[in-house]
Write a structure and sequence with these properties.
FAD/NAD(P)-binding domain; single chain; NADP; flavoprotein; alpha/beta; binds flavin-adenine dinucleotide; oxidoreductase; flavin adenine dinucleotide binding; five-stranded parallel beta sheet
Length: 423
């Protein structure tokens, strides 16, 4: 790795021209790319905004979280989970695995480096990446340049909180699920959880088990499936059946067995969508809920289902059916989004909402023009991220071996970057 001061009159960030790809994000996807590059003996630089690897799992998830799907579907390339891990590892198990993965492949990301801009400098054939650091000692922006840029900043980079009328007037505590750790401090409180995905359901369960009174606000339909059927994981069964049967038939099977095991979820206020769970996952990326215990609390009335929130007031919420209720706290389990559009000037690989343009069930678009790659945006979890990481790293390695770039490009003084486009 070599550095040089960028040409130009304005105070400009230092520019470090790298002899290998830049990877944005040290989550599971970025680590998988790095490990595979290491195996190809290709140098790399990971830029990670937080102070540790796997920020989502380290800092933005609740205590009781386990992997939603069995460990066999969540392993990163080259190293399996230790055999003594449970079928559904806890988040702490998963983090232990990720840390040992990083040290095994000698992956040392540049931590506390948030990527604020990346653009392709066509005359220099380089991606130029501007970062800022949270550390007071190195507050200045730093610029990196490389012929290859791997976007691994995740589908869950920023929280999504819907704009609801009167939200700022609510006097109780309001938080996003990324800030929730445990139901302990909500004991005895009436808590409204907005959203009924896997996180919303599991937080309601956690609140109920800690003596709080959870209410779950449900806007649209949701498929709830038991996490296991016939002693095997529902996810695993679905994957096996999909090898032989059309998706609609597998969906019908899953829903039939779910009804036998759970009963009629509509009777308790959880409408089932018209399309089946796997079809919805394929089209929208939205996962069905794999029940880990919340369902029995819904049936016993310990978790109450309420409709969509119409507005908030000082002490509670009004729902679209006209009912009003008082709450002590509100938790928004309303998901996340990619932050790629805020920093990547690309226009070809990513859409305006930060997803790869060609994303469809049968293809994951991990490669774009000019040495741009993305890993972890398939909407289909860690297994697919691992496969994408293998492909992206092998592609980069092939190009890197053909064109070692460091001596050549470090001779150039890079021109100052053009101003970012308006907006
Ligand atoms: C509660 C929850 C449970 C889940 N359970 C499962 C499961 O069981 N199985 C499964 O397959 N998937 C699961 N997922 C999906 C999850 O997103 C993936 O497992 C995994 O974390 C994706 O890895 P990633 O590296 O692509 O993204 P992330 O884990 O989000 O990592 C991206 C990294 O990029 C960094 N970053 C973002 N923006 C920038 C920037 N501008 N500059 C520098 N760094 C940046 C972030 O800080 C982060 O460390 C779950 C998600 C959630 C929220």
């Amino acid at each position: 790795m070599q550095g040089q001061q960028q040409a130009g009159h304005n105070p400009s960030p230092a520019c470090i021209v790298l002899d290998g790809p830049i990877i944005v994000g040290a989550g599971p996807s970025g680590l998988a790319v790095a490990a595979t590059l290491r195996q190809h003996s290709v140098p790399f630089t990971i830029l990670e905004r937080s102070g540790d690897i796997a920020d989502l799992w380290t800092n933005r998830t609740y205590d009781r979280l386990h992997l939603h799907i069995p460990k066999g579907f969540c392993e990163l390339p080259h190293v399996g989970f230790p055999p003594d891990f449970p079928t559904y590892p806890t988040k702490h198990d998963f983090l232990r695995y990720l840390h040992s993965y990083a040290s095994r492949f000698a992956i040392a990301p540049q931590l506390g480096r948030s990527v604020t801009r990346a653009w392709y400098d066509a005359p220099a054939s380089l991606w130029r990446v501007t970062t800022t650091s949270a550390a007071a000692s190195s507050a200045a922006a730093t610029e990196y340049a490389s012929p290859w840029l791997v976007v691994a900043s995740g589908e869950n980079a920023e929280v999504v909180v819907p704009k609801v009328k009167g939200r700022e007037t609510f006097a109780g505590e309001a938080l996003h699920s990324s800030e929730y750790r445990s139901g302990e401090r909500f004991r005895g409180m009436r808590v409204l959880v907005v959203g009924c995905g896997n996180s919303g359901m599991e937080m309601c369960l956690d609140l109920g088990e800690h003596g709080a009174m959870p209410f779950m606000s449900v806007r649209s339909g949701v498929h709830v499936l038991p996490r296991e059927m016939f002693g095997a994981s529902t996810f695993g069964i679905a994957m096996k059946l999909l090898r032989w049967l059309p998706i609609q038939m597998v969906d019908r099977f899953l829903l039939l067995v779910a009804k036998m095991i759970l009963g009629d979820t509509e009777k308790y206020g959880l409408k089932r969508p018209k399309l089946g769970p796997l079809e919805i996952k394929n089209i929208t990326g939205k996962s069905p809920v794999l029940d880990v215990g919340a369902w029995s609390l819904i049936k016993s009335g310990n978790i109450k289902i309420v409709p969509e929130v119409e507005s908030f007031s000082g002490n509670g919420a009004r729902f679209v059916d006209g009912n009003e209720m008082a709450f002590d706290a509100v938790i928004f389990a309303t998901g996340y989004r990619s932050n790629v559009p805020s920093w990547l000037q690309d226009g070809e690989l990513f859409t305006d909402n930060g997803k790869p343009r060609a994303r469809c069930p049968s293809s994951s678009s991990w490669s774009g023009p000019n040495g741009l790659y993305c890993v972890g945006f398939s909407g289909r979890g860690l297994l697919v991220s691992g496969a994408e990481a293998l492909m992206a790293a092998a592609d980069i390695a092939g190009r890197w071996l053909q064109a070692p770039i460091s001596p050549r490009c470090c001779m150039h003084a890079l021109p100052p970057p053009p101003p970012p486009p308006p907006g």
